[in-house]
Design a protein that fits this description.
five-stranded mixed β-sheet, alpha+beta, 29% strand, 191 residues, membrane
């Protein structure tokens, strides 16, 4: 019987994958909250208006050409670039037979792989993203490193070196149960 082929994070991101681990869990999350897009739309319209206004207003390009170039760059970066980054950003969490893989494209240039042998504990939690981590995205703080896109639920992983990693997830219970099942079976096999 042929092995089932699952789309891997490496294929999605056009990265060559060196190992052929079995995919056990996969979750893809993106910034799709309405309030973010309302703010981004307002910012984009304002930035594009600022960039295009010299073309429509009676202005003398020769006297203020540097200002016009700066406004055009500002409009392109904040009017088109920033919304594009929010649209394409995705947090991909995969549990494979050999470890946990976190990808936060394009914020992280490379996927992060955490081997199960380095995990001590895993718990599904409810947290306060603004108060505890300062918001969403990739966050470094006193409570550890957080990778989250939306919501207030996730999985807190404690590593054997004492550091903690929070992964935001809409399927936090399933993610934690799968990790704990693998950690438990690896620990029982070692004893």
């Amino acid at each position: 019987m042929d092995k089932l082929e699952w789309p891997s994070m490496a294929e999605e991101m056009s990265i060559t994958e060196k190992d052929c681990a079995t995919l056990l869990f996969r979750e893809v999350q993106q910034f799709r909250q309405p309030w973010i897009w309302i703010v981004l739309t307002g910012t984009s319209v304002t930035a594009l208006w600022a960039a295009l206004s010299p073309f429509f207003l009676d202005s003398d390009w020769q006297d203020h050409w540097v200002l016009h170039i700066i406004l055009i760059l500002f409009g392109l970066i904040f009017g088109i670039g920033l919304p594009w980054v929010f649209y394409v950003t995705k947090l991909v969490t995969e549990i494979r037979s050999d470890g946990l893989v976190i990808s936060f494209y394009p914020l992280l240039f490379f996927p992060i792989k955490i081997y199960f042998k380095n995990m001590q504990n895993c718990t599904a939690i409810k947290y306060k993203p603004l108060q505890e981590y300062g918001g969403w995205g990739v966050r470094l703080g006193a409570k550890g490193t957080a990778y989250n896109v939306s919501g207030n639920r996730g999985v807190q992983i404690e590593l054997i070196n004492g550091s903690k990693i929070l992964i935001g997830s809409k399927k936090s219970e399933v993610l934690a149960a799968t990790i704990n099942l693998i950690i438990g079976s690896k620990n029982s096999n070692e004893n």
